[in-house]
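Dear support,

Our group has been running a series of protein-ligand predictions, and this particular one with magnesium ion is the one our PI (initials K.S.) wants archived with full inputs and outputs. We had some confusion internally about which version of the output was final, so please treat the block below as the authoritative record. The input we submitted was:
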Amino acid sequence: MITKTVECRYCKSDFTVTGNPGEKLSIPCFNCNKKNVVTFSDKGGEFVESVPVSYALEVSGLVKIYKNVKAVDNISFKVRKGEVFGFLGPNGAGKTTTIKSMLDLIHGDAGQITINGLDVRINGKEAKKLVGYLPEKVAFYDNLTALQNLLFYAEMKHASKDECKVLIEEFGLGDAVKKKVGTFSKGMVQRLGVARTLLGNPPIYILDEPTEGLDARGVVLIRNKIKELKQQGATIFVSSHILSEIQAVCDRVGIISKGVLVAQDTVAELSKKLNLKPKLTLELEKVSDAVVDAIKKISGIYDVKTIGCMIHVVCDSNISAKVIVAIVNAGGNIVNLQTQTPSLEEVFLKYTEE
Amino acid sequence: MFSNILFSIAKKEFMDNIRNKWVLILSVIFAILTIVFSLFGSIFGTGWQDIQGTVSSMIAIVQIFIPIIAIILGYSAIIGEIERGSMSSLLALPTTRLEVLVGKLFGLGSILAVSILIGFGIAGVIIAVNIPNPDIVGFLIFIGATILLGLVFLSMALFFSTLFKKRSSAIGGAIFLWILFIMIIPMIVQGLLIAEVGIEPLMTGEKVQIPDWYYGAQLVDPGSVYNSLIALTIGSMSTPGNPLQITYPSYYSSGLMTLIFIIWIAIFFVLAYWRFSKKDI
Ligand SMILES: Nc1ncnc2c1ncn2[C@@H]1O[C@H](COP(=O)(O)OP(=O)(O)OP(=O)(O)O)[C@@H](O)[C@H]1O
Ligand SMILES: [Mg+2]
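Confirmed final output from the archive:
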């Protein structure tokens, strides 16, 4: 055992630590309670670095019960810094309830939520400084103009007037800057809502259905924005129904169904777990029995269906070439060919099956 | 930092609500009312009444309308934002629910104070130039007392705004409390007094022993505290709303009345905070 007095990295007060040689421990300072990593070399205690808070968002054991509905039933997950996490689930699954709890808008019946290591129930104000939140139901002060509204939020997020103007412009509301928000269309309100979320350039974003009510151009705008934020190193937690959108930008997804988190992983991993196979669709000049038999003989084939001149083959991904060779050898003439990797939609439907 | 955020919220509240144009219209109505009361307040009077006369003829009406304005300003402050959906964005900002509530009280309180100041102030200036030796301090006390009365009902309306799930229930509840405070409680108290000492001595102004409980009960009712506060500072008077001739016991003082107002404001504010801090948005 080595005992040594060391100086806290944060508050610079001295405290004593004990450990075995070669051990690396994370020990809270006796004075400020912040964790310090101490490596015990043969010479004694020695500071290396502070413990990095590796998770931007941490939800553990969250439960929320409404009168007779368990809206959220013991949900736990962690979102790493810089990660884009998609939060998926059918209507009424508990997505919004979870998200609102993360911002301390709703008080859960059990569980703990931290943002960058800060408990939202205790250090809410500090935690919220780090977050841009887009609520499910975006609303503003209808009597104030777009700019007046953003200026109010900007003041609270230490963003400048110029930043407000740039964001309003960026989200295609340049012409409406001086119009009262009460006169805005649903999509315009949503766009202004996204602009508000970005004020002050926070490191973490929590977005509840960001593409809701947007036209095609708006959807592209949001998707590109998410990519851009990710490149800047931001953490993004996004709930959505539009699975193709999510699949394109998410590092990992969580799937919630009836208040329970039924799966969380990368889309590829989830497909693997579900044993979802790629689909190969071939169009032939003419489909003969010989061709179908030839395909069925290959090992690694799970299903073969023919509809007119089309053959749908479900197979392991590494035997697509063999299928093509077999068809050609059996005298088939391939006109067109398409491969489909398992989509998030399939994963989603599998996990949220009734 | 705390004060910056408070200021932002209060300012937003002020700007958002100052557009409820009829808050301003009401202050104009108050100015006109004051002038009319000053000119014609006394049936026998001709020309301008002095400040004390004007104030005493106005108390009854002010006591009814200021609480109504305060209730209208406050009843939707919390539930309205929740219903509209803007509360979630407000509370997602780096702020606390306490700051939001204090900001709203300050913002709405300033609107109330400003309309009272403008309304009565303009009238006061007009009266002052028309009468000899105007009691300016007395009139300022009247304005201050009126603002305090408004703040009591504003704080009450804020509490009701956190109590209900719907805006319509909130205004219903606040109006019920207004009727309770302005009409029912005074009626019961006066009724009990009449039951105890009989009606004749009160009508004829004959000297009777007013029971102690009566003065205690009066302290619960903001309207009568308002009455007493003005009577104690500007001068004793009888008003149409309070025809009973009453001389106050010795423990009645303007300080006590002000304190009671502040206690009411604090009680409703604490209740409002207690509800708001537990509310799911
Ligand atoms: N205030 C409330 N009172 C009672 N039940 C509620 C309340 N809010 C939500 N619920 C219930 O909780 C469950 C989860 O609702 P939630 O809004 O979290 O779903 P969601 O996943 O966001 O759905 P959607 O995709 O439709 O937005 C639903 O069954 C809903 O009826
Ligand atoms: Mg939702």
